Amino acid sequence: MPFEAPNTGPATPPSENPSGFAPLRIPLFRDRWIASTISSVGTWMQDTAGTWFMTSLTASPLLIALMQTAASLPVLFFGLLAGATADIFDRRKLLIFWQAWMLVSVGVLAILTFLGYVSPWTLLGLTFMLNIGSAMNNPAWQAIIPELVPRDLIPDTVALNAASNNLARALGPALGGLMVAGFQRIYTGAGSVFLLNALSYAAVIWVLVNWKRTPLFKSVLPSERIAGSIRSGLRYIRYAPDVRASLIRAFTFTFFVSAIWSLLAVVALRDLHQGALGYGILNGSLGLGALVAATSLPRIRRRLSADSIIAFSTSYIVADLLILAFIHMPAVIIPSLILSGFAWTSTMSSLNTSVQLAVPPWVQARALGTYLMTFQGGLALGSVLWGVLASHFSTTTSLTTAACGLALSFPLTRRFHILQGPVPDHTPYQWKRPAPQPIPFPSMDSEPADDLNSAGPVRISVDYRIPAEDYAEFTQAIHQLRGVRLRDGAIRWGIYRDATDPEHLNETFVMESWLDYLRSRERVTAADEQIRERVRALHRGSEPPRATFQIYAKEITAPGD
Known about the structure:
Layout: H1 27-57, H2 61-88, H3 91-115, H4 120-143, H5 145-148, H6 154-181, H7 186-209, H8 226-238, H9 241-271, H10 276-301, H11 306-326, H12 330-358, H13 364-392, H14 395-413, E1 458-465, H15 471-487, E2 490-497, E3 504-511, H16 514-522, H17 526-537, E4 546-551
Antiparallel strand pairs: 1-3, 1-4, 2-3
Helix pairs in contact: 1-2, 1-6, 1-7, 2-4, 2-8, 2-9, 2-13, 3-4, 3-7, 4-13, 6-7, 6-10, 6-12, 9-10, 9-11, 9-12, 9-13, 9-14, 10-12, 11-12, 11-14, 13-14, 15-17
């Protein structure tokens, strides 16, 4: 069973003086970037108009803060499912479907708003529906990046995507607030913003319809089932320390920083006595700082490590939360929000890049879906807590609590390092020989022959001859290989030393099915193969390490019983 060669991604001319804008020289990425920017402007206009519209429907700080929860919670519910479907199905078709879902959802909200049939719970419900589409769309949207640009341009590409979103964040809130304030009836202003956002999705759909996709990784094996795909994605993340570190840092950071996003409208209304346009300017200040960060990050990354960037950003946001809590002067708050937007994007871009570079193509969308679920889960859960505190006490108490929590948690999370050491080579390593066939197989088994490849569980046993002087080095190498086996699909693993022959060691690992074993062979990357070669190089024997395969022997009822 041969494996198809991978697509290594589009080429781009080398740059002697990297500026961070090299990905925009690739036409397909440039078209995607422009369409995404247009759509993001509409999204941020809607975010501002929707949140301010809620302040006109209710005075409850909790309901206002729940707008952030309605935007974030769908990712918490559907992040894993979104990642699994994006790794199984055609990402282009999935993206078209979910972009159309978002267009329809916000279109319905626009019509109801124009007619005046929107209550706080209707607004929350349709915002939730809109963001179900966003949650299902985003893992596939981010996972196609390696299909559009070379791997060495991924950090700059992530920064440019952040620049796109934050250019929209700088313009969208102000434009949304201006449009809402420009009409006598807030229903007309908000409805107009919702309608424009619905139309903005058409630009993205047009680019996707015209995209001739060439996947980076294409298996010749049958597709995984959704449940199995979710399990294998979670298994990979469980045994990938770099990914786990990024998830821990992302959740902790967003949980406390969500106080800014969820309570900014309350600060604008109650503390600064501003209207929709004033709130839009405050929100746009965050976007302006984020835009500056996104365009500056390529140069910053060449001088500072990711851990240092996150440390500086965290320290500043603690200060900004306290500024919002105690200083109610727009002349102070606006510059502080610009710097806070800079710190936010610097951190989130570093974390996003770390996930993109830490995983191979076959599990890319599942890892990104888990990251987005963690990221938005922090926002959603944090927003509820800060909204409850603001409702029962005050915005000052809520913001101060968030600042103290972020400051106290940072020493605990900084030991989870980000983007340390060389980037692993996740180019798929192609086996040069056919996969072993599932023979012998118990002839008395009642399963049809077509099910042989899905039979299991399967135990793989590999015998090594290791001299005593190489034993310590071998155990270090084989335990590195343990991580590879478990990430790629093994459900159990062990290494055993023969009690009567100390130079004989046996590695045993179990796969759920024969098909999963074949998939694990496809998933071996160039970096994984280096670990395998190190283990095999320590073997001393007249022949290579001997592997045997055992398929679980199910109980068979004898004829006549």
